[in-house]
Amino acid sequence: MTEQLAQAARELEALLDSGRVLLNEPLKDHTSFRIGGPADVFVSPAGEEELLSCLRLLAERDVPFLLIGNGSNLLAPDSGCRCVVLQIGKQMGAVRREGNELVCGAGALLSQIAAFAKEEGLAGLEFASGIPGTLGGACIMNAGAYGGEMKDVVTEVRVITKDLLPELRTAADGLCFGYRTSSLMQEGALVTGARIRLSEDSREAIAARMEELRRKRVEKQPLDVPSAGSTFKRPEGYFAGKLIMDAGLRGFRVGDAQVSEKHCGFVVNRGNATAADVTELIRRVQETVEERFGVRLEPEVRILTEEGSLWRNERR
To answer: Cα separation of 27 and 6, whole Å?
Structure first.
């Protein structure tokens, strides 16, 4: 660890309650792939104001930082990250109802929000009940499944801009939601919360739809082994999983990284896969599919470097 990071850790410990600044924290414990070496400094802010204070401290001292949620769409490097990793988690995951809308913190799991909506008799978020990520990341990448996307339900978001200013954005402001992207992603904004508009329905009807989607996931997806969900974005006019299957890559392995035999759109960790195994497998799948079909697959999983490759301080 550099002296700059060590000093930042000391200042963060003085700023936050004890126990929420960890040193050499394994990132494999914070990603659904169960892959990743240690983060030099790992911090769990307890709220928006505390998060903003951390960000401003790091920016003032020109310290590199990386923000993550539930780690469900990340591949962390085997060597870990030489930066401060800030996790927006359950401490920022409050959910409450206001009329037919839910006001949610960015650290709330989508499954948690969907379950809350069901109990409140609010429909429209069933598609998200099996998505393992947090609300913040889901808004930034316009997460979706089974015909639904966050753009269908999000009416406004609370953000911290790259200038470290809190702002409120509405859908009318032009969040520019697209397929697994948004203007928030393009500008590097951080979501701290969102308002979701739903419609009333019976709990029984909502539960039935959620159960049907759960059965589909269990039947088709490799939920019993670590992965980061769909590894590749859907190329226009095609399905990534079918292209990979038709290229003869079902079950293809590099080390303990494997193209799932159950669903070829997933790369899974068969036990002790490394980030190097996964990235090499992704590269070889891309090359084979492009050679066979002329289609270049684009990863949906976010691949980190030692310095971090998500929203972070870029003035260093």
So the answer is: 18
Catalytic position from the list 180, 195, 260, 312: 180
Backbone CA torsion sign across 33, 38, 39, 43: positive
Residue 253 appears among annotated catalytic residues: no
Mutual orientation of helices 48-60 and 3-15 as an angle, nearest 10°? 150
Answer positive or negative: Cα dihedral of 109, 149, 231, 43.
negative
Catalytic residue among 20, 230, 260, 312: 230
Q: Which tens digits make up the pLDDT trace of 236-264? A: 999 999 999 999 999 999 999 999 999 99
| Residue among 25, 50, 149, 300 flagged as catalytic | 300
Q: Is 180 a catalytic residue?
A: yes
Handedness of CA 298, 304, 305, 309 (dihedral sign): positive
- Confirm whether 230 is a catalytic residue: yes
d(CA 257, CA 267): 7
Query: What's the pLDDT score for residue 309?
Result: 57
